[in-house]
Write a structure and sequence with these properties.
This protein has 184 residues and is α+β, with helices and mostly antiparallel strands. It has nine helices and four strands. It has helices at residues 2-18, 22-38, 40-44, 50-61, 67-78, 85-100, 112-115, 119-131, 170-183, and strands at 103-109, 143-149, 156-161, 164-169.
């Protein structure tokens, strides 16, 4: 299923680039992915005929979205792939970031207050992630910082970028302290 999502995302990327609508289609797909993901079970049910799926997609999208986005969702409906929109959108987002030279820096934080920090704190986190080697510090201006609250964290954060991660959580610090104590 992941391979199919990547192939669909590549096709959409090619069409959006050809029409010079990459940013608009990316914005459309990101907002629609959430809506269609919530009703994925309905769209993947065999009792919901393709003809009705197409009519629903046409009605839901109306004229609010780019024509490429609308055609793409109609294609997904026709191919019975609307249930995979979330995976396709994630793959498309990664491809768009790479295409535009944007670096996605994901931060798992333990509560909302750390995500709402000042721009000074965010700048320090971005700088620290660059120093740690998660991205090339020369590209600092192309960073897209994403926060997620992880209720499993006791404190601190976990940063992730391009498959590299940096665990600066309280849990890992406590493990390190435990190792030091055992050595003494």
């Amino acid at each position: 299923m992941v391979d199919a999502a990547v192939r669909y995302a590549e096709a959409l990327l090619t069409a959006a680039k050809k029409e010079n609508a990459l940013a608009q289609v990316a914005q459309d797909l990101s907002s629609l992915a959430l809506e269609f993901t919530e009703s994925a079970a309905l769209f993947s049910a065999p009792v919901f005929p393709v003809r009705e799926q197409l009519a629903t997609v046409n009605y839901a999208l109306g004229d609010k979205f780019h024509p490429i986005t609308k055609k793409f969702f109609c294609l997904l409906a026709k191919m019975r792939r609307l249930g995979e929109v979330e995976q396709i959108a994630a793959a498309f987002d990664r491809m768009v970031c790479k295409e535009m030279g944007v670096i996605d820096l994901h931060m798992d934080v333990f509560d909302d207050s750390s995500a709402d920090g000042t721009s000074e704190i965010k700048d320090k986190l971005i700088q620290a992630a660059g120093i740690k080697g998660l991205y090339d510090p020369q590209n600092k201006k192309n960073i897209r910082l994403n926060y997620r609250v992880d209720k499993g964290l006791l404190g601190g954060f976990i940063a992730e970028c391009d498959g590299l991660s940096w665990d600066c959580s309280l849990r890992i610090r406590l493990v390190d302290i435990g190792k030091l104590i055992r050595k003494v």
